[in-house]
Amino acid sequence: MDPDENLRKQLRIARRVLGASEAPDDALRPDEWRDDATRLAELAVALHEWIVGRGFLPAAWQPKARPPTAESRDRLTADLAAILTGPTSGANAERLARSAAGDDADALARAMGDAARRYFGA
Q1: pTM for this model (two decimals)
Q2: Which helix (H) or strand (E) holds 109?
Q3: Domain-embedded: residue 67
Q4: Structural domain of residue 45, as residue ranges?
Q5: What is the signed CA dihedral for 42, 44, 46, 50, rounded to 10 degrees?
Q6: How far apart are CA 62 and CA 30, in angstroms?
Q7: Is residue 101 within 8 Å of residue 108, measured between CB atoms?
């Protein structure tokens, strides 16, 4: 499944239908309306199933990353320093990983905790 191609097809059909409804000279025949409606429905359902089945969003729907601010970088640096150098750095690293890693949180948490314990001897 290519979600970008699916979305392009959906938009092309939707614009064609909207254009035909706004310009009587470009009116679609009844069978064209039916075909377009059926195809648009198939594409919408396929994209929905792709996304809820853990697929990724089309590029046009993905949020644009905002560059970090100086304040957020400083806060992150301070938080990480406190987590990784505190008296319970291994446990803190595990909590940090669990909060940030989603489905792979347990494996990442163990790996980060082990690494912090090895590095800091905690």
Answers
A1: 0.51
A2: helix 105-120
A3: no
A4: 3-61
A5: 180
A6: 36
A7: yes
Q: What is the pLDDT of residues 25-79, one digit of tens each?
A: 667 777 888 899 999 999 999 999 999 998 999 999 988 777 777 887 777 777 7
Alpha carbon separation from 74 to 5, 29, 65, 71 (Å, rounded): 40, 62, 18, 5
Rounded to an integer, what distance in angstroms lies between the CA atom of residue 49 and that of residue 42?
Answer: 11
Between the CA atoms of 84, 90, 96 and 101, what dihedral angle is there, to the nearest 10 degrees? 120
9 and 45 part of one domain:
yes
Let me know if residue 44 belongs to a domain. yes
d(CA 112, CA 105): 10
Residue with tokens 């290519």: 2
Tokens of 45: 């359902």
